[in-house]
Amino acid sequence: MTTSRIARGSAHTDAAGSTPQIAATAEKSVLRTRLLAARKAMTPAAKAAAEAMICSRLLDWLQNNPVASLGVYHPIRQEPDLHPAYNALAAQGVHLSLPIIRGKEAPLEFVRWTPGETLVKDAMGTSAPAHGETMRPQALLIPCLGFNAARLRLGYGGGFYDRTLAQEPRPLAIGIAYAEALAEFAGQPHDIALDLILTNG
Description:
Elements: E1 2-3, H1 20-40, H2 44-64, E2 69-71, H3 83-91, E3 95-100, E4 109-112, E5 119-121, E6 127-129, E7 134-135, E8 139-143, E9 146-147, E10 153-154, H4 160-165, E11 172-176, E12 196-198
Parallel strand pairs: 2-3, 2-8, 8-11, 11-12
Antiparallel strand pairs: 1-12, 3-4, 4-7, 5-6, 9-10
Helix pairs in contact: 2-3
């Protein structure tokens, strides 16, 4: 599946009179638990097949929509591992970078990275380059725990990518997800729609 239309969500309205923000947060918490369990239940063969398909679609899309610099991610919590695509892109001369978390309320900072370079834990325990040039990537690969028909992303609740995409100039936002992560949930005012989502579906 490849989705490409840009859309923005609206605040959730609770018919029972609950505060919309609280209702939406509770809804997303339940959905995160369900989607994490489904991801954990994937067999190694199914995960590998899904990753291969996503890698292929990513490389095909970038062949037709080339970028000079790309922010990527190091997979956690069984996110799609796209290192084969990273290797191919680096060989083509695309400048890759990985995000570093500088603080709980800060946007992500991207540091240039070449596949194979040593990674260390950043302030939030995420694997990141030990050192390197700070970059402003032309496009970002953004892992999605879930996503909806409006191309809004469900992450782990930290808001790091929302704060990053709120900056100018805004990079192209490419969501990466398993097809089974498509779900129904209400958008909130701070949510920023992705430009496209690449899946194995």
